[in-house]
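Catalogue entry: protein
Contents: sequence, fold tokens
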Amino acid sequence: MPVKRKNPKTERYEFFGRIILPNGRRKEKKFLSRRKALEWEVLIRQKLHELSKQTPAVSLHSLMTDHLLAIKAKGISQGTYDEKHLVFQALLGQPGASPVMPAADLPHNVVRKLLDGIAMKVSGHRANTYRKHIMRLWNWGKRARLVKGECPWDVEKYKEEKHDKYVPPEADFWKVYEIADQVPSSHFKTSGHVNYEPHRKRMLLAYLHTAARRGEVFRLRWDDVDFGDDRVRLWTRKRDGGLEFDWIPMTEQLAETLREQRLETGFGEFVFVNPKTNKPYTHGNQMIKRMCRRAEVEVFSFHAIRHLSASVLLQAGVDLPTAQLILRHRSVTTTARYVHSLTDASKAVNRAFGGKIVDIKKTSGE
């Protein structure tokens, strides 16, 4: 309530409105009437109440940190986590961006300049990857009730140059398979000495017969191999639910191959182990490149074997729902993209139009 005090100089009474601030300090203001002092107190209390209900603006750095912690807890792959971290570092390093600034205050043109630079120096595809992570940062913040409204950094997608994914002919795969266990020794370069690592052949066969993604075979444990029911369990992080698994059938040839591998690994945890580190493989990109070059075929990746498996299934007459089960796609449309190729399209066109040659001269009346 306002207090009344006598001014010793003027001998007149003055009224002081008094408010206790959230930090505990008291604020006063002088008025000529009690009514004015009381109105001021009511106004200030109302403003303080409104401010207390507002969510403090989250800083750009805090939003990024909270997002990374949340997706890590969800079980996202380390590769995706590292990629997001790289994108956020690049964004914070831009002129006009500050870690302590409210996330909503990050100017749109700061994001645009970053993405434009990546599109010009690297590729439109890379710029779109950065754009995706930045947009998801804001959308996650909305779900977490940290930010509100539409994303202020919505930059239109960049044009990308589409390239066909190379899928090796089945013959090239078997050429690589035949030499996969031959590892030239660095100690015997002049003599041509070769070491043999049969687990590499078995690994390639596992990729072909399971249509697994690269990391799924690298992370394969013996607990995931069921010899009794002839099935293999593959774990994936490619879904929204985090780390999930599917059981797929194990062929007789793969079962025999994995039994041989079991004898070599003994009581080890993982099916395939890098003999140089005694740990599971992590990338293996250079390994398969060297094998392809040694077999004198065009270089392909582990993931390309997954596409090859899909093509083999189709050529064997396997229907799309069954192929979807083996490839573990949520949508049969995705499976269709895997199993269809130009070769299949060519066969379809020839079946439809073959032998139906029209004499243009006759149809034109000449």
Summary: The beta strands are 3-6, 13-20, 26-31, 182-184, 194-196, 225-226, 231-239, 242-249. DSSP finds 15 helices and eight strands in the chain. Residues 3-49 form one domain.
